Structures are given as structure tokens and as C-alpha cells.
Amino acid sequence: MGAVFAKCGMRCDLCLIYRPNVEREDRRTEICAVWRKQNPNFDADPAEIICDGCACQREDAVYFDKNCKTRRCVLEKGYEHCGFCESYPCGIFSAEPGPEEITRMIEVEKRWTWEDEKLMEAYACKKYMDEFRKEHGPE
Predict the structure, then answer these.
(1) In the chain, what is the greatest distance between 2 CA atoms, to the nearest angstrom?
(2) Is 5 helix (H, G, I), strand (E, B) or coil?
(3) Can you tell me the distance from the alpha carbon of 81 to that of 11, in angstroms, rounded to the nearest whole number?
(4) Number of other CB atoms surrounding residue 64 within 10 Å
(5) Cα–Cα distance for residue pair 37/81, rounded to 1 Å
(6) Which of 5, 32, 41, 89 could bridge 95 with an S-S bond, Cβ 3.0-4.6 Å?
(7) In this predicted model, what pLDDT tens digit does every residue of 80-111 receive, in sequence order?
(8) What is the dihedral of CA 41, 123, 101, 132, to 10 degrees?
(9) Which domain holds residue 78?
(10) Is there a domain that residue 3 lies in?
């Protein structure tokens, strides 16, 4: 399987809750533990959490975040993902984290391991969108 981008640029093909990956090797317990380090209020059941990927068009598709603002924006504009948008980065998908996010990231780093970092590889949206735009340019 090649790169499968979510609307925000996340790599579904690397995501540990993406249904095809779960069916191949279920590692949801591992990623949920890492997400709890990032957000102590994260309380999803690893046995229940799953995502068909936001590009899935089935009516019964399951999404990690049904109310994702980025997904809605990309669909309204008719793009495959943010990398094609002339406004990238924008208020919905900003280029740099704000001061609150930087503070939160520093706090998370104190509890982070190299294994955690590897598990989070799929979720580096900005990295993947920047690489995409460098290679393809905006549409």
C-alpha cells in the first residue's frame, strides 16, 4: 500500500487505528497509551477505536473525529487534502503551533520515549503536507 493521506495530511497508511492496519496487526492499545500521554483526558477504549480514514466515502464509515474542521473545509473546497489548497497553511491548519500548544508539547516531551515518537509517525500532518507541496506544488 502506498501513501494514503487523510484530508489534513496525516498518513492513514501509517495510522494505528486505520481499519486496514488494525486488521493486519492490532496495535491500538499502544497508540492509545501514547495519546493519553499527550492528552490525559483521552479516554477511548482501544478495543473500540477504529477509523476508516476520512477519504472513505461509505455511508457507514467510521471516523476518528466526525466533526473535524479540516476534513469539512477540504471537502467544501473539493480538494483531495490540504496539500492542494492555495490557502495552506491557514487558520484551520496553521503553519506553526500557538503558544499554548508549544507549552503542552513541552510538557508531553517530559514523558515521551523514542518508542512513542515512532508510534506517532503517522500523525505528522504538517511534515507530510510540506513534503507533498515541495514535490507537487499546490494544485
Answers:
(1) 41
(2) strand
(3) 11
(4) 19
(5) 28
(6) 89
(7) 999 999 999 888 876 666 667 766 766 766 67
(8) -160
(9) 12-136
(10) no
Q: Is residue 50 part of a domain?
A: yes
**Residue 120 located in a structural domain:** yes
Q: With left for phi above 0 and alpha for psi between -120 and 50, is residue 59 left, alpha or beta?
A: alpha
Separation between Cα atoms, residue 79 and residue 135, nearest integer Å: 17
pTM of the model: 0.81
Contact 27, 20 (CB under 8 A): no
Residue 75 in this model has a pLDDT that exceeds 90? yes
Length of the chain: 139
Place of cell 507537487: 136
Picking from 39, 36, 38, 68, the residue whose alpha carbon sits closest to that of residue 51 is 68
Q: How many domains does the chain have?
A: 1
Contacts of 58 (CB under 8 A, 6+ apart): 52
Residue 122 located in a structural domain: yes
